[in-house]
# Entry
Amino acid sequence: MTIRFVTSNEGKVREAREYLSEPVEQVNYDYTEIQSDDLADIAEHGAREAFEHLGGEEPVLVDDSGLFCDAFDGFPGPYSSYVQHTLGVERVYDLVDAEANDRAYFRTVMVYYDGDESVSFEGAVPGRIVAPRGEGGFGYDPIFEHDGQTMAEMTAEEKNAISHRGRALAKFADWLAAEPAERKGPR
Ligand code: ITT
# Structure
């Protein structure tokens, strides 16, 4: 079964392809990201909208992620994409660097929706905000350090082994493997 991953972010797709044994097709549809403090609400709403927009027949997967900085009570959180494109990751580092607390975590909620049932899978990883290092990954990876390495210094495989998305993908893969007979859509 091909997984239809609705996202404009090729980095997310690369990591899903690295992790899942099923083929992953990127569907570049820009679903509405509702304003909410909760990534799960945003992903759920996006999955339903994308499913209908794409013809309402085949299941879709969406991923909503965010960087949550302790010093700022979780900012930028659900607004991480907006902040990356307005401030940029180096200035997020500058802001956190001026604070006493550099702790942060990354969180992902993936929602798989087949028109009937919507199932969500989440993952989180703790880390520290550091000066940018590394050429790999995407988004905030250069300023997010976990266990001495920034996520931009890791291969996709190494990042998946510890990351928010890797954890969500592990749960999704287990669920996919569990009860295929009960799921709709092409296999
Ligand atoms: P889609 O909504 O089309 O999937 P997006 O990049 O806007 O793509 P998000 O809203 O989920 O996706 O991402 C929020 C922000 O966090 C955005 O700036 C991403 O680049 C960044 N981001 C997401 N996952 C990340 C990861 O694993 N490592 C570093 N940055 C990440």
About this structure: The domain at 3-182 is CATH 3.90.950.10 (Maf protein).
